[in-house]
Amino acid sequence: MAKAFQKIYTKINRITKATCSLHAAGVGYDELATVDGALAQVVKIVGDEITLQVFSGTEGIRTNAEVVFLGKSPTLKVGSQLAGRFFNAFGEPIDGGAVPEGDERETGGPSVNPVRRKQPSELIATGIAGIDLNNTLVTGQKIPFFADPDQPYNQVMATVALRAETDKIILGGMGLANDDYLYFKNVFSNAGSLNRIISFVNTTEDPPVERLLIPDMALTAAEYFAVEHHEKVLVLLTDMSSYADALSIVSNRMDQIPSKDSMPGSLYSDLAKIYEKAVQFPDGGSITIIAVTTLSGGDITHAVPDNTGYITEGQLFLRRDSDISKVIVDPFRSLSRLKQLVIGKKTREDHPQVMNAAVRLYSDAANAKTKLENGFDLSNYDERTLAFAKDYATELLAIDVNINITEMLDVAWALFAKHFKPEEVNIKQDLVEKYWKN
Asked: Which architecture, in CATH terms, is 75-341?
């Protein structure tokens, strides 16, 4: 039943597959409404014409349907009771538990004022050597995984959630297959880590447009723990391509002219308002965002990864290495633009030199492989680089490697000593004398 102060209308001018339009006054952007009881949200305002996105679709809605504006944007009740729980795109429990108590907060607010930000300087260790050794993450950073749809990116995200040295992990799942949802739920439960993990999930069985609410829900929870409890929060968003597809569905059904790859012209700002929530606060709280962007046929120039690359501070590129039959974090196509803030400062002194030497030798191996494929003879050095590359990929780049950064550096030194002479590695002599494994 509508409350006395709520605005009620019964004349809809236009209905599409996902939206309906009507004339109304005093309505705000992102405000929630019900259309014959179905939840909807304001997505466009032109004068007094309001366009509502109906989450469950407009099938069966009449032109004289009752439209009730609720006077508020989507909200989430934040508090300690969020921990260990699974919620849908509206912040409602889907794990069979009770509705949590807490303060009601509107979602989708602005990013943090730059004057309240601190330069990121704290290391986030994931236990994955392809990240920690070559593309070290920093609190307050925003960075995506680029991966083909058939790669195990959700398993990687679950691994990061379990290994990351943070206070809270917040998962935002968009368009997850039911198997992936159950996988996350089982992995988190069996690992005994639910007390620090909060999940907001939209599955393929849910309306696609509900995916648009997931990042805001996840980031509202993150802001609560980072700002009010000064905690180090890691937000995992998978898959941002599904999020962009939902944006495309809504814009196309509103008859907006599509931009590149059928995406809306607002794609850059839509993605930026999410990623720019990443922040390091002066008092110690932080929000770090790791997202997944799946690639269509490996196309890095598609609008979603292309825009993402301009917004974020690097990318982590997953690739299946045919030589070892494992998925690795590709050192050539991956980049963390903030790693220099912590490597050699918050990690061991030899980290920068070891990282650079290993990638250079891996590059030499790639050149040797090209020579081999083109029928050229290989030198003894070429053969040793190929052997090193195989060991390097198996023991350090593969996503199933779980060791700390000090151990990663020790493994790298051992591989250098196994395949090369000290002068071939090109590392400072004082570090060689200190760390070379004879």
From this structure: 3-Layer(aba) Sandwich (3.40)
Q: Which residue has the higher pLDDT, 66 or 438?
A: 66
Question: Which residues make Cβ contacts (< 8 Å) with residue 87, sequence separation at least 6?
Answer: 93, 94, 198, 199, 200, 201, 217
7-69 has which CATH code?
2.40.30.20
Q: What is the pTM of this model?
A: 0.90
pLDDT at 269: 92
What's the mean pLDDT in 340-368? 94
What secondary structure letter does DSSP report for 56?
T
Distance between CA atoms of residues 438 and 434, nearest Å: 11
Stated as kind and residue range, the H or E segment containing 239 is none
Sign of CA pseudo-dihedral 308, 154, 108, 256: positive
Kindly tell me the burial class for residue 429, based on how many C-beta atoms sit within 10 Å of its own C-beta (0-12, 13-18, 19 or more): exposed
d(CA 267, CA 296): 17
What single string gives the DSSP state of each residue in 308-373? HHHHSSEEEEEEEETTTTEEEE-TTT-EETTGGGTTTTTS-TTHHHHHHHHHHHHHHHHHHHHHHH
Rounded to the nearest integer, the mean pLDDT of the chain is: 90
pLDDT band at 3 (very low <50, low <70, confident <90, very high): low
